[in-house]
Amino acid sequence: MSEVQNFYNGKNVLITGATGFLGKILVEKLLRSCSGVENLYLLVRQKRGKDIYTRIEEIFEDPVFDRLKAEVPKFRHKIVVIPADCEAAGLGLTISDRQTLIEKVNVVFHSAATVKFDEHLRAALATNVCAPLYLLGLAREIKKLEVFIHISTAYSNSHLSFIEEKFYPCEANSGKLQKMIDKMSDEQINKISPAVLGSWPNTYTFTKALAEKELRENSKNIPLGIFRPAIVTSTLKEPLKCWLDNMYGPTGVAVGTATGMLRTVQCDKTVTADLVPVDSVVNCLIVAAYNVHREFVKSPPQEPPIFNYVSSVENRITWGDFTDLNMARIDKHPFSNAVWYVSLTLNKSSFVNAVCVLFLHLLPAALVDGLAVCVGKKPQMLKVYRKIHKFSSVLSYFCTKEIKFCNKRTRELWDNTSQTDKQIFPFSMAEVSWSSYFDDYLAGIRRYLFKESDDTLPRARRKWTRLYYLHQIVRIVFCLFAIYVIWCFISRVL
Does the pLDDT at position 259 exceed 80? Predict the structure, then answer.
């Protein structure tokens, strides 16, 4: 065994957020590459009328677990599912389940969080702040705890222009804030939210920063580490190339662009797009946990170590690069559900973008909805664009502000990792080829998000060709109409 594999040998690992995007890859990687792990205790909540066991069984049907099934077919006996709820006091654990965790667990990965940028403050505070504090309280009772890793975000202090691997001030107090909002209605909370957030752009980044502060103040004698990944995107290579299961962040932009729905967005093409593949994130997370434990045993640090996991320091790309790399490959991987040919404009100015929204989104949508009403169908386009604009406005902050990061500790972690573990858990962003990565990015969206097999590509390409010619015809007609209007105006003036 390698050093890292040996650390996890015989360990019982507690994971929250195992049903999420990052959590699935963490579960898969631990079971496949750390075969000596004894058990994975997964805290799962009932959702949409499905019990926790049904949810886990459905998750293991995802193709991302196919390689694990082939290489470690008897992995399921290591999965222990425990009912829990991160929004409930004490995580909603029963007395017997809590005692089991206290007796058995060695390693804790806290991944559960609400990642909606515009989440209501009440829900964001419960999930992103109270839950990790409850889990820290549990960790304090765990008899054989070796490491506790809290997964935060590189943007927890996104109101700053330079972010190092250290804690930053956050004046809010979670206890006082919780007592205050408990006495308020949702409408009252909405009114005070801007004052509560202060410099932070949204409830997600604010609650992540507040959680870091509270964990720091309450983690004495706990082997705690804070892990801050940047914008987590589809897998690089493990266990599948470009696997993903959500449309958050840049993936939503890529989908909107490739389907022809998104034609304008407020974005500075020169600003850094700090993308990190989810399998690389998980590899670094697993190695970082071992490092936190090892350093704590040697000499407990004065403060919990922080790992900024970003790509910009060693392998920077911009939002302009992200757009260009995808645009160059859309013809190769067109979507069957495309409604128009690709035509995306990046506007740094909010005013220019608002004008483009009017002419490229709202007026065409109103026209389509009007035609739908005339033929007796339900109008939907304006409703769709309201969602698109809400999504775009949330992202615009991160697409127009340049933030620089320091990831010294993370780079040192890579340098000090053994060659064997570098092969098993590769996480150096310097070794990522963005060109190769984006060769399969759109293909991954087709396969794993839209469930389209490659057999549908010929038909999708024929449709894409028709949309291209239709797009060109509309452009020509619009240009001729504009010339006619200008000519008529000049004729009247003269």
Answer: yes
